[in-house]
From TrEMBL:
GO terms for cellular component: cytosol; endosome; membrane; trans-Golgi network. It is a multi-pass membrane protein. It comes from Ovis ammon polii. SMART domains: CTNS. It holds the Pfam family PQ-loop. It comes from the Eukaryota. Keywords: Membrane, Repeat, Transmembrane, Transmembrane helix. This is Solute carrier family 66 member 2. The chain crosses the membrane at residues 16-37, 49-71, 77-95, 143-162, 229-251. InterPro entries: PQ-loop_rpt, SLC66/Scramblase_ANY1. The lineage of its organism: Eukaryota, Metazoa, Chordata, Craniata, Vertebrata. GO terms for biological process: phospholipid translocation; retrograde transport, endosome to Golgi. Its main location: membrane. It is found in: Membrane.
């Protein structure tokens, strides 16, 4: 009798835990960016945050959604990608607005010039409507340019996936590229910190949440039998997070002495 009563209690409890874990997977990935978003909004300085983090996550999650069409995996992982894409677009919008507001005499860099407000198309000298100059890529001055780039990538990748969806090799490679790209999430921030020999402007809370979230996510993959690509790349992601935390400790304990007449941090271009 007691066993039956205990079973009656454990079934809904197990269901609640499952729902909680699924909810954490869907929304937990965006939580680390809340303190960074608030810091940028409060200080009106986005130099400490690499927008290439947004690029990595946008590419990774678009590829993951396309992978789902070839090999169905758990719905929480699919919805996590949708929520993350929307979050990265919000981060890009804020960073672009802040950077444009802070930089004087900003040279117009566009993915296309179709949204020129006065109706007159003005192309900077030596640049075309489609500016794929590596020095300017992902450093445009309009949020619409980023949206157009993301839509173009989604369209091309989606078309290739549609044509190759019946190939098991293609689908598995697509899944591997999706999670491997996501595993490289912290690399732009890692490189930026190394280049500047500083973590100033980077939210330590964000990185700590990255680490805890990636650890939880990797455990979730292992326990729920997700495709092998997810687990391997999740472990790699945790290692990159730990490397960034080591940078934060080293650069805080042994700060680089500023050079004479150094430019103000807000005027320096972040990666």
């Amino acid at each position: 009798m007691e066993a039956e009563g205990l079973g009656w209690l454990l079934v809904p409890l197990h269901q609640l835990v499952s729902w909680g874990a699924a909810g954490a997977m869907v929304f937990g990935g965006v939580v680390p960016y809340i303190p960074q978003y608030r810091d940028i909004r409060r200080t009106q300085n986005a130099e400490g945050f690499s927008t290439y983090v947004c690029l990595v996550l946008l590419v990774a999650n678009i590829l993951r959604i396309l992978f789902w069409f070839g090999r169905r995996f758990e719905s929480p992982l699919l919805w996590q990608s949708v929520v993350m894409i929307l979050t990265m677009l919000l981060m890009l919008k804020l960073c672009t607005e802040v950077r444009v507001a802070n930089e004087l005499n900003l040279k117009r860099r566009v993915f296309s010039a179709a949204d020129n407000k006065d109706g007159e198309v003005r192309v900077p000298p030596g640049q075309s409507f489609l500016d794929f100059d590596p020095h300017h890529f992902w450093h445009w001055s309009s949020f619409a340019d980023y949206v157009q780039c993301v839509l173009a990538f989604t369209g091309v990748a989606g078309y290739i996936t549609y044509l190759s969806i019946d190939s098991a090799l293609f689908v598995e490679t697509l899944g591997f590229l999706a999670v491997l790209t996501e595993a490289m999430l912290g690399v732009p921030q890692l490189y930026r910190n190394h280049r500047h020999q500083s973590t100033e402007g980077m939210s330590i809370k964000m990185v700590l949440m990255w680490t805890s979230g990636d650890t939880f996510k990797t455990a979730y993959f292992l326990l729920n039998g997700a495709p092998l690509q997810f687990s391997v790349c999740g472990l790699l992601q945790v290692l990159v997070d730990l490397a960034i935390l080591v940078q934060a400790y080293v650069f805080t304990r042994y700060p680089l002495k500023p050079a004479p007449h150094a430019a103000h941090p807000a005027s320096a271009k972040a990666l």
